Amino acid sequence: MLQPSIKSRPVYGTLTPRAGSEHLIVADAAGADAILDMAAIAPLGFFDKAHILYVPIEHSNRERGDRLRALDAAMFYEGPSLAAALPRLAQALANARMGTRLYLAGTEGLIGQAMKMALDAGIDHSSIETEHRGSTARRVQCVHCKGITENVTTQPAVCAHCGLTLFVRDHYSRRIAAFQGVCIDAEEPGIVPPTEEAFP
């Protein structure tokens, strides 16, 4: 489990089935296991009111999709990418009724972007259940050009937009669902520490 280092750093828990009028569940390949674990303790009829959005990322993760499909949720969607699934999530949030519960499981990129959409729809972040599974790769915003670089695993990292070498901070913005990256050699251009795999 990821440990918080500063106040803005997201803190994740363990998915627990809660009473609700509907259950909106979003997961990627790693998060599928969290959903299956929750299913083992969910009350009878829980998935009769559930809508699962699953993003397997790779074809090899289709088996997890089959196991999620076998839960017989009221609605099940399996999409090729998070970008393809987010419009469906936006529609589901727009149609959500009072008492709808939101569950997010998987990588920080998925949790962050889905949570941002939920917050934009007016759902309080404290009412959203999250569980981190899988890679700790980060979504990073360059504070200089404002570009977002996805799946950053190294420290430092290169901005995919302006090319600056960035120090990836633990500071996290829920508003943009990204960690902050600042130029690491602004004081002494060209003096950059060795690149390390920091977020595997």
What features would you describe in this structure?
The structure is a single chain. The protein is of the alpha/beta class and 200 residues long. 24% of the residues lie in helices and 30% in strands. The strands form three sheets. A five-stranded parallel β-sheet has the order 3-2-1-4-5, with helices on both faces. Strands 7-6-11-10-9 form a five-stranded mixed β-sheet, with helices on one face. Helix 3 (82-94) runs parallel beside helix 4 (108-120). It is elongated.
- Using only C-alpha atoms, the radius of gyration works out to 18 Å
Overall number of strands:
12
Characterize the biggest β-sheet.
5 strands, parallel
Please state the overall shape, judged from the principal axes of the Cα atoms: elongated
Terminal-residue CA separation: 13 Å
List low-pLDDT spans. none
Helical element count? 4
Q: What sequence of helices (H) and strands (E) makes up the elements?
A: EHEHEHEHEEEEEEEE
Helical fraction: 10-25%
Strand order of the largest sheet: 3-2-1-4-5
The secondary-structure class comes to alpha/beta
Mean pLDDT over all positions = 91
